[in-house]
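Forgive a beginner's question, but would it be possible to get a protein, spelled out as residues, together with the matching structure tokens, please?
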Amino acid sequence: MSQLLGIIQRLKTMQEATDQTEAPQRRFEVNGKALCQVKYFLHTDTFELEVFGDDHKYQFDDLDITAIEIFDLVQEEKQINT
């Protein structure tokens, strides 16, 4: 559960970074393997999740849903590596 809270905190920090000229972005990795990248767009209050490996970008207007999607990707990768 603390991992999910960490993801939520990182996304909230992105929302609070209003002084940026470019969209704030974060990468999420497991054991050095980049899984996805998230950008936050202030003008539309949306997150864009780019999942590496499937070459898709997903738009979310809800922080919690975005965090759950990232958490699922991380958990899936951790299960593969165990």
